[in-house]
C-alpha cells in the first residue's frame, strides 16, 4: 500500500512548522490535510500554497476526510480533551502536541517504540522534550531523588495557546521527569523572557542523587543522550560541561548534577531562536513517522 495519510489539526504556528517538517521528509507518512477554524489563518493559506488540502471546520473537517490514519493535534489542552474521544471512535491515532496528557508520554530519544499499539500519545511540552532526556540520562546511571528544571524561552516564541496552558505545562513537564525521566519527585519552572533580541531556549536541569555516583559515567550517559536527540533536533546541545556538586537540599547534603542546555531551531517556519517550538514539532514528526511505518507493516490496520 501507499503512504499513511496524516492530518494536522490546528493551523497556528506549531501546526504550520510541523507541516514544513513533514513536507521535507520523504518517509512513510503523507500530509493529506491541514485543519483549522479560521479561514484566514496564515497556516491554512500556506498549506494551500503548498498543495495540501485544507478545511476551516476543525475536527469536523478532519473526521469528514477519508483515509486519515494519524492526526497531530496542535490546538490546546482543553480542545484536545474534546477531540480525543472523537478521534478514538473514528479509529484514528492522535499525536497530541498539547499538555492534555490523555495518552502516555513519548520522547523519541527514550521510548519512541514503546507505545505503537495505543491510539493516543502525548508529546508533553517543549521543556519536557528538552529536559526529560537529560533527567533520564542521569537516572539510568545514578537514581535521581529529585529533579528540577528551569526552562527559559523567548516571549515572542510563546503564543496565546502556550500562555493559556502554563498550568498544564508545569504539571505535565514535572510528571514526565518522573514517569519517563525516572526521578522520584520533580518540579518544572517556566520563565518567559522578553529580552531583545530574543534569546534561544535555555534549560537548566538539577538532578539530586540519592548518593554519590561515578561522575564520568554520568557525563558519558548525558553525552550519549544529547547525541540521540541531535538526530532529530540538530540544534540541541550542552552550553557547558555538566558537573556534580554536593549541595544542601531538604534531604541533607546530597550530590546534585547540574546541566545547562540550549535548543536552536532549524528555521523551517519559526526563527532559529524558537527552539522551544521546534523541538516539539521535530519530536512529533519523528513519532508520526514511527507510527506510519508501524501501520504499513500491519497493512494499515489500526487495532
Sheet-strand content, in percent, reads 25-35%
- Helix count? 10
The CATH topology of the largest domain turns out to be Dihydrodipicolinate Reductase, domain 2
CATH architecture annotation name of the largest domain? 2-Layer Sandwich
Query: Strand order of the main beta sheet, please?
Result: 3-2-1-4-5-6
Number of domains: 2
Report the structural category: alpha/beta
Give the helix level as a range of percent: 25-40%
What do we call the CATH homologous superfamily of the largest domain?
Dihydrodipicolinate Reductase, domain 2
Poorly predicted runs of 5 or more residues: none
Separation of the first and last Cα atoms: 17 Å
Number of separate strands = 12
Query: What shape does the CA trace take?
Result: globular
Key features?
303 residues; alpha/beta; Rossmann fold; Dihydrodipicolinate Reductase, domain 2; six-stranded parallel β-sheet
Give a short synopsis of this structure.
Helices cover 38% and strands 26% of the residues. It is of the alpha/beta class and 303 residues long.
Write structural notes for this entry.
- The protein has 303 residues and is of the alpha/beta class.
- The chain has two domains: 4-124 and 281-297, NAD(P)-binding Rossmann-like Domain (Rossmann fold, 3-Layer(aba) Sandwich), CATH 3.40.50.720; 126-272, Dihydrodipicolinate Reductase, domain 2 (2-Layer Sandwich), CATH 3.30.360.
- Helix content is 38%, strand content 26%.
- The chain has helices spanning 13-23, 42-49, 58-63, 77-89, 108-111, 126-139, 160-164, 166-179, 215-230, 275-297, and strands at 4-9, 29-35, 53-55, 68-73, 93-96, 120-122, 144-154, 185-193, 201-209, 236-238, 243-249, 252-263.
- The strands form two sheets. A six-stranded parallel sheet has the order 3-2-1-4-5-6, with helices on both faces. Strands 7, 8, 9, 10, 11 and 12 form a six-stranded mixed sheet that branches.
- The two termini are 17 Å apart.
